[in-house]
Amino acid sequence: MFLYQLLNFFFAASKKEDDSKYDLSLYKRGDLLEVPRTLFTHFGIYLGDNRVAHLIPDILPAITKDKSAIAKMVTNNRLLMGVITKVASVRVDSVVDFAYGSDILINHMDKVCSQPPLDGEEVARRAEKLLGSVTYSLLWYNCEHYVMYCRYGTAISYQTYQFCTTVRKLVFSRLSAYLTAVCGVCFMLYLSCVTPLTVLLTVLVSFTIWMAS
């Protein structure tokens, strides 16, 4: 009980926004909403009547059954801990709680995705059908995969693609190949373990990175 109270204090919502900041008349059922959140963009589907369905990591359901506490706005601390522990669900929140104080873009992905959007009612129906706990993965199934499936019929994430492309450029680069070779040589000399096997491994790893760059 004490642990829950401590975590509840730590995860207490730090942002309180005025409902009047968001004009609900701008949103239609089935619209795809996106807002900046932590290091990434967060996505949701507008269901109408000030309700947004979104897939969001949240540690709180793993440590308490208090539905009133879980229903409160998911703070960044709760979100980040949920990402680490892979605890997430598709839930419905108000526009204010979903936006977390940020400006909202409406259907911006329509300009990015090559697939035409589905009918708004079908989009919302798909979003509602998937409500509840989900198997979460930052790279393979996140909030963007969820909304892209609902609105376009294909579960993809452009953020994930961009992230993986950046990592590939950093890891599989010629500079990385040089550094791997240098570090391998230094490691062998420092440990005095220059053997055919260690030389072969150093050359093989460096060559693989070089060829992939």
Can you tell me about this structure?
- With 213 residues, the protein is of the alpha+beta class.
- It is built from nine helices and six strands, in the order H-E-E-E-H-H-E-H-E-H-E-H-H-H-H.
- Strands 5-1-2-3-4-6 form a six-stranded antiparallel beta sheet.
- The radius of gyration is 23 Å and the shape is elongated.
- The relative contact order is 0.13.
Features:
213 residues, 6-stranded antiparallel β-sheet, 6 strands, disordered N terminus, 9 helices, 46% helix, elongated, alpha+beta
Short description:
This protein has 213 residues and is α+β, with helices and mostly antiparallel strands. It is built from nine helices and six strands. The chain has helices at residues 2-10, 67-70, 76-85, 95-99, 120-129, 143-152, 158-171, 174-191, 196-212; strands spanning 32-37, 40-48, 51-57, 87-93, 105-106, 132-135.
- Report the average pLDDT across residues: 84
Number of helices: 9
The side-by-side strand order for the widest beta sheet comes to: 5-1-2-3-4-6
Give the amount of beta strand, in percent. 15-25%
Structural class: alpha+beta
Radius of gyration: 23 Å
